[in-house]
Design goal:
This protein is an alpha+beta fold. The protein contains 3 helices and 6 strands; from the N terminus they run E-E-E-H-E-E-H-E-H.
Amino acid sequence: MTVYIDPPEWPGHGMLWSHLVSDVSYEELHAFAAAAGCPRRAFDRDHYDVPAHRYERAVRLGAVEVGSKELLRRLTEAGLRRRRPPRRVVTAR
């Protein structure tokens, strides 16, 4: 079981955020996130958005600290990456 977290450097809603991913399964990720106090609504396609104030707890519980590029590489290599669907372009008539 390995869960990874990147540094809280992503701004949003007046806070900084990290991303939490698993390289095994979404089930593992959901269980770990729940133990770290992350609500299910923080799940976004293939990762959890983790506010900076929960970062240390996730690390204490066993999340491995990696950079953002490494986190994305591990997620992709595990076959768990879910890309956002392309936006539809609406043309005026």
